[in-house]
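Sequence in, structure out. First:
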Amino acid sequence: MSALWVLIGVQGAVLATLAARLVGGRTRRPAERPRPEGLEAPGLTIVVACLNEVARIGPCLRGLRAQGAPVREILVVDSGSTDGTRELVAQAAAEDPRIRLVTDPPLPTGWIGKAWALQHGTTIATQPWVLGMDADTEAEPGCAAAVLGAALREGFDVVSFAPCFDGQTAGERWVQPALLISLLYRTGAAGDPRVRPDRILANGQCFLVRREVLLAHGGYEPVRASFAEDVSLVRHLATRGVPVGFLDGSRLYRVRSYQDVRQMWREWGRSIDLKDAVTPLRRWADALLIAVAQGVQIPLLLWLGIGWPALPSGSARAALLGLTLGLLSMRLGLLVALRGNYATRGLAWWLSPLADPFAAVRIVWSSIRRPRRWRSRTYG
């Protein structure tokens, strides 16, 4: 009986913690809208870091070529692709003079490849604003004008945007929301200005920075060894007083990050613990929170249904059931709130709470192990 009341106390503490973190989501800003008419503002350089992205770079380039003002330069920083990526970029560059294919210098010791490519692209950019776009994104016309307009409107020197997830398999639509919601549980409501600097969320798929501000703080060098360079960089800058933000870009661009659920489980699972952006103590505290909030709620609900007569106390039974239903209701509420960030949902997506125990296991496992291989590169 004492163990049961301990569980009830832990559940109550987790529910209170999540409620406090997520309450700011009630005033979440609406999704930003494209600005197809362009924007007369300081110029913008788009930087795309890539390595062997021949299967995905085509839609990315098509979307970037559709951008009007203020885009004046598009740098594709290639790290030595051998799969035909460079040829596709060269062909696009022949049709759009803003596109330039560059090769980053050899990767220095201690750097992760993407951070190094972004550092090189930011250094050689000629415009006052730099927009990092991943090779697996496809921007809508007016995306670049909209993100810069949002930054100027809100007074951000750094701002990133949540995407619209597109082209996912049924397996991805079942597992991915569970992993995504684990981020919100650990960071709080996306875009909430009350979020502490060391809990701010970011998304490197669409990441806008004021170039002079970033370089004044060392560029990507302070986060050179991070597999979550976007979150690490934003938190590094926020703690130094740089105005940063996170907005909804689901109407601005789409992303197809992985080929199937296995690749998503392997690749995204290596960085979703955010071990490079938090202290070890915080990492394990967050892993414990996810284990309780997502790992045990479905099993608990099944246990309460099957083993209800075996529970010795009516008050304990009622308290445990109430807290379990409260946490599951919060989980379903977040799922509904995120529906606009998915181009396709379907039954698998709505059943994603059933994948929560697997997501919790992945977070804990990722917290234990540091990646050795990332996007076809091996690190020591």
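Second:
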Amino acid sequence: MQTEAFSELFPLFSAANPETLEWLLSVATEHEYPANRAVLMEDAWGNAVYFLISGWVKVRRLAGDKVVTLAILGKGDFFGEMAILDESPRSTDVIALSPVHLLSVSAQRFIQTLFKDAQLHHRMLQLMVRRLRQTNFRFQLRNRPPAVKLANTLVALAENYGEKTEKAIQIYNIPLKDLADVTDISTEEVTKIMAKLVEKGWVKIDSQRQAIYLINMKQLTHLAGHA
């Protein structure tokens, strides 16, 4: 992968030195996984940072027999960096929702990269603060109506990972249980709300293409309370 395309795909590297990117790509390893395959197991956190070139994954928390989806990530995002920086064990894993194409960089080499490039180090801190703010925002939504919370989830997925088509923004057809977990509402509530959004014509679900089309972003954004 060329350095220019890599920096365009991953905002983390938008201000990185080209030489840094060349070196990073030279030490990176490519991976491809089919849907439903474990990408990162709970005992492997801290070994590497993973960069999503294409596809969708979910990060799950494991607690005995209970499994909760914590986050949905799409192309241009990355994971594994926190375990490297704080060197703590994780009781989470990462599962491919769709076929995925990844690059991984070992922990040691990723840390070396941060030390090589002050701009990259600063950008990493900015993105970590942004993730913390997003977590705080989700916490602030905890007492809002389920429809508002789900609209926020859909809008965030569209803004972060959506692909624009002629008349809509396309995201992956995320399983209802995973949507419910990351939104902090029940699966039954997600089912009812999605049915209403489809009925209103704001959303279209194409199971064959494994896609959700967000047709009326203006109304979804308004429902989410962003307008």
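Remark: Residues 51 and 173 are 21 Å apart (CA to CA).
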